[in-house]
Amino acid sequence: MLRMESTEDPENRLLLQPWTSVCFDESTKLMTKVWFGDAGYALLLSDLSSMWYEKVDTEVIQQRSKELNKRLTAHVSSFLSRLRSLICPLLEGEKSSSTIFSCQLSSSTLTLRVKSELSGLPFYWDFRCSAAPVKMVFHHLVQPLMAMSLVLQSQVQELASLLLRKDAEIEDYRESGATLSRERLKTEPFNEESFLQTFETKILPQACCLGDGHQFTSNLKELYVSVSQKQARAACKRHWEGDCESPEHASFQDLAQKAADLPTEEKKTESQSAAAQCTQDTVVPSSQTQKVHLPIAKSKRKKAKGLFG
User: Fold this and answer.
1) For residue range 108-157, what is the model confidence (pLDDT) as tens digits?
2) Contact predicate 281/159, CB 8 Å
3) Where are the alpha helices (DSSP H) in the chain?
4) Looking at the whole model, is its pTM more than 0.70?
5) What are the residues facing 33 on neighbouring strands?
6) Phi/psi at 90 (5° precision)
7) Considering only CA atoms, which of 225, 219, 224, 255 is closest in space to residue 237?
8) Which helix (H) or strand (E) holds 22?
9) Cα angle for residues 255, 10, 76 (degrees, 5° grid)
């Protein structure tokens, strides 16, 4: 949920907002992130080929409200509250029949027009965005996505290693004479090569369909926010320790090195945090696994190669 904040820098607050795919009209679907404060807002839009940005303060809101709503006289906070109430439902996939959005865009500018009502009178607003600088594209898309890929790769490697250890444990049960009480629970040993082939032929093509913007749904939004928060904290720590760089100048090389050097326990924590948001997989009840009471002989661990290692 978006929150009205006044004590934070708009650009920093915007960085911590997740991307959401929003359909503004029949022909325009854009990746969107927005932050509303007590005295202004910041908006970022992208069609994955261009990015547009607008940040306004109290003075701009007053001037634009007089220009577009000559019959309305209201405090800036009222306009911001109304805009927030119009945009937030869109971010959650809800539409209002009483509100109309339309877009006019080019490579350098984008105008998002809103037509609605306020206090029973027609209410108009234009989000007038200009092309975002390359540095902003890097901070809001490239850097977080690269960090997310490192976290997810680490998670996959941990899961592959766990599967290999589970296969060794099951094989030890079988060699000890244990049998399944339900044949349908039987699984084949994990095969990395087969898994990668299935991934490349079935899952990868679906993941590459980025046009609809669904790459930032469900748990990936949480992971994006988590990554952005950690980047901001790391940059802020360097700043207070005497580094002249601001949070906006955080180096991706530093981030990549830190992710690669994460201790095992920290990697597990990151993986568990991301996995907790995913759709729950079917898990065999613990009562079923407790039916076998045979002693477990320690088997020699097999070295996990890692899916992408």
Assistant:
1) 899 999 999 888 889 999 999 999 999 999 999 999 999 988 998 899 88
2) no
3) 10-15, 58-68, 76-91, 134-137, 143-175, 192-198, 204-207, 219-240, 252-260, 264-275, 286-289
4) no
5) 44
6) -65, -40
7) 255
8) strand 20-25
9) 165
19 and 224 Cβ atoms separated by less than 8 Å: yes
Residue 236 in contact with residue 247, Cβ under 8 Å? yes
Q: How far apart are CA 17 and CA 33, in angstroms?
A: 6
- How far apart CA 125 and CA 45 sit, in angstroms, is 16
Q: Which residues contact 143 (CB under 8 A, 6 or more apart)?
A: 231, 250, 252, 255
Assess whether pLDDT exceeds 60 at residue 171.
yes
In Å, how far from its chain's centre is CA 229?
A: 12
Count the neighbouring beta carbons within 10 Å of the beta carbon of residue 33: 22
- pLDDT band (50, 70, 90) for residue 36: very high
At which residue do the structure tokens 């060794």 appear?
168
How many CB atoms lie under 10 A from the CB of residue 89?
Answer: 12
Side chain identity at residue 297, one-letter code: A
Q: How many residues does the chain have?
A: 309
CB 237 within 8 A of CB 28: no
Contact (CB, 8 A) for 165 and 189? no
